[in-house]
Write a structure and sequence with these properties.
Blueprint lengths: L1 E2 L23 H10 L6 H11 L4 E4 L6 H12 L9 E4 L3 H14 L8 E4 L5 H9 L4 E4 L1 H10 L9 E4 L2 H6 L3 H9 L6 E5 L5 H10 L4 E6 L8 E7 L5 H12 L4 E4 L3 H13 L4 E4 L5 H12 L5 E4 L1 H4 L9 E4 L6 H8 L9 E7 L3 H12 L3 E3 L5 H21 L7 H9 L4 H14 L6 H4 L45 H13 L22 E6 L9 H12 L6 E6 L4 E6 H11 L3 E2 L2 E2 L3 E2 L7
Helix pairs in contact: 2-3, 3-4, 6-8, 10-16, 21-22
Bound molecules: adenosine-5'-diphosphate (ADP) and magnesium ion (MG).
Magnesium ion binds next to helix 3.
Length: about 625
């Protein structure tokens, strides 16, 4: 949110929120806002209240749901002298519903203010009741212009002691044809009274009113990013904490995003996520408070130049970042409040382009999101995390598009000789193409990175018996291993943290049925013997000083599966054979492809026929 200069007078910078206790209010009001559950003043309240308390005229603009009622009702109540039993504040509202609503909120805010009373007056309600209230000496009247005029004419509403007039939803009142009534009422108020206008917009007619009836008003405009960015498609996903990274990468892959920010709530989370995405083949970098200013500048510069795809950041670190053409903003962690939310998502969907804002919610956070939606009137719909099949499909169509574009642009060197040789050997051209696509996709890292730049197909994976890569559906039930109790992974654990991996390993030690294994990483050395396990070939070995711990850690870390899916490990001079749970074998092969271990990019493959089951 942002405050803007408007009109002829100085504007206030009202983008911040402050505690109510810093706004110069009496204890009675502070008790009331506390009782109402308001934790801090909204930006319009922060900006308006101190100025209003000085008696200055105000023109306030902010979006629906930003808390304008309390912004004027609080200073209104503070300005009432309880000893004077006459109308001191008049609030004009366009409709009876609104008058009732404002009266209710004002009543709550005045709850602890002894001797301050108010009444709504509107058409449709009996005059009798309103007479009685007015005769009883109320100080705050909240009414529709028509009925207020009626009472003035009947002499039942006297305005000579009036200190403050508030026009709420001024634009709507004018749209409804209340202009003459409003002018009539304003003319009947004392010259000395304070005047506050609230309106979403300030058309010419309101400018006129302001010019003629107010004295050098303070203009306060709070701009809501969310409201002004209707081209941001906002979606939330309910995601188990431990599945967030998987969910994130699927959403990136399915949408083929290439440029975005991923917001996390803590520095640790930023580091962790950056590392994980990096190891999965995404081009990422990070920003948080512990990173030096010089380094931050470098990261921002690189990001603006699109030298990498995704910036992982905390709110604070991303504050000064002036990029605005992001394809997507991920709220990997839910922001603290609607304010931060709108701030974050305001970085996408600018310059007339459509942006996306994806928000992850887990457990109790759902309630927090709901209250943010209500409070800031956010337009967020619920989404479904794509399945692995959908990810594959999307990848395929991205890939298809790339091939088509390359053909269209004739952006390739001919390889007629190689193709002719293959054709000569009797292979069908469709089979040759299929094999090439298979090689390209099989060795590419997830996230479209490698697909984006297919490069030379010079180093195919050492295919032993590679079946079609169709990973087991690990989504939402992350653990397929038999030896891990559900309690082993409490929801609070940050995804992929060392502790989670440690726990998986620890756990399989802790269980008596985990057989002959002695220490965390101890695995039998003879592969291909255990039923239910498949053997996977890895192109690293003793030469790279690989240990079983390296292998187990890498597999568990990259796949997010528990360490128990790894069985026997047989390390040779230049390669390693690893048993992994049959159900996860293809998934492991796919996930490890291109990941670095001891400086070597892994080219895993299934040694399929060695499986015993
Ligand atoms: P507006 O008039 O700007 O559309 P409202 O004054 O009707 O907004 O406020 C919208 C909702 O936000 C109301 O339910 C109100 O009680 C609540 N609200 C107002 N101020 C705060 C605050 N500081 N903290 C939390 N909720 C608030
Ligand atoms: Mg309002």
């Amino acid at each position: 949110m942002q405050a803007r200069r408007g009109g002829e007078s100085l504007a206030l910078c009202g983008m911040e929120k402050r505690p109510f206790s810093e706004l110069g209010l009496t204890p009675d009001i502070l008790k009331a806002v506390e009782k109402m559950g308001f934790e801090e003043a909204s930006p319009i309240q922060t900006a308006v209240i101190p100025v209003a308390l000085t008696g200055k005229d105000i023109v306030g603009m902010s979006s629906t749901g930003s808390g304008k009622t309390a912004a004027f009702a609080i200073p209104a109540i503070e300005r009432v002298d309880p000893k004077i039993r006459a109308v001191q504040v008049l609030v004009l509202c366009p409709t009876r519903e609104l008058a009732v609503q404002v009266a209710e909120e004002t009543g709550k805010l005045a709850h602890f203010k002894r001797g301050v009373t108010g009444v709504p007056i509107y058409g449709g309600q009996s005059y009798e009741r309103q007479f009685r209230a007015l005769a009883g000496g109320v100080q705050v009247v909240i009414g529709t212009p028509g009925r207020v005029m009626d009472h003035m004419e009947r002499g039942t509403l006297k305005l000579d002691q009036l200190k403050l007039v508030v026009l709420d939803e001024t634009d709507r009142m004018l749209d409804m044809g209340f202009r003459d009534d409003i002018e009539h009422i304003l003319k009947a108020t004392p010259q000395t009274r304070q005047l506050m206008f609230f309106s979403a917009t300030i058309p010419r007619m309101i400018q006129d009113l302001i010019g003629r009836y107010s004295k050098n008003p303070e203009w306060i405009k709070i701009e809501s990013v969310a409201q002004n960015a209707p081209q941001v498609e906002q979606v939330w996903f309910e995601v188990d904490r431990r599945s967030k990274i998987e969910a994130l990468t699927r959403l990136i892959d399915v949408n083929d995003f290439r440029y975005g920010i991923i917001f996390c709530s803590t520095k640790i989370m930023v580091d962790d996520l950056d590392e994980h995405l990096h190891s999965r083949g995404y081009l990422t970098d990070r920003l948080h408070g512990d990173i030096t200013q010089a380094q931050r500048d470098r990261v921002m510069q690189k990001f603006r130049e699109r030298k990498f795809e995704f910036l992982v950041a905390t709110d604070v670190a991303a504050r000064g970042l002036d990029v605005d053409d992001l394809e997507v903003v991920f709220n990997f962690d839910l922001p603290n409040d609607a304010e931060d939310y709108t701030h974050r998502i305001g970085r996408t969907g600018r310059a007339g382009r459509k942006g996306r804002a994806f928000t992850f919610v887990s457990g109790q956070e759902l309630y927090k999101l709901q209250s943010m939606v209500r409070w800031a009137k956010l337009d967020v719909r619920r989404g479904k995390i794509p399945s692995l099949d959908e990810v594959d499909e999307a990848r395929t169509s991205v890939f298809f598009e790339k091939i088509r574009a390359t053909l269209e642009a004739k952006n390739f060197k001919p390889h007629d000789r190689m193709i002719d040789r293959l054709l000569d050997q009797g292979y069908a051209s469709t089979d040759i193409c299929s094999a090439l696509i298979h090689l390209l996709q099989g060795t590419s890292a997830p996230g479209g990175g490698a697909i984006a730049k297919p490069g030379p197909v010079a180093k195919p994976a050492p295919v032993l018996t590679e079946k079609s890569v169709k990973p087991a559906p690990v989504w939402a039930k992350p653990v397929a291993a038999p030896k891990v109790s559900p309690a082993a992974a409490p929801a609070e654990t940050p995804v992929g943290s060392e502790t989670e991996l440690e726990r998986d390993r620890e756990d399989d030690d802790g269980h008596p049925e985990s057989g002959p294994r002695k220490s965390k990483y101890d695995r039998p050395a003879r592969t291909g013997r255990e039923p239910g396990y498949a053997t996977v070939f890895l192109n690293v070995g003793r030469k790279q000083i690989v240990t079983p711990a390296d292998i187990v850690g890498k597999i568990a870390g990259v796949t997010r599966l528990p360490a128990t899916i790894v069985g026997a490990i047989d390390i040779h001079q230049r390669h390693t054979l690893v048993d992994v749970a049959e159900a996860e074998a293809d998934f492991v092969v796919k996930k490890l492809a291109g990941i670095k271990l001891k400086g070597i990019a892994l080219e895993p493959a299934r040694a399929g026929n060695e499986t015993k089951s």
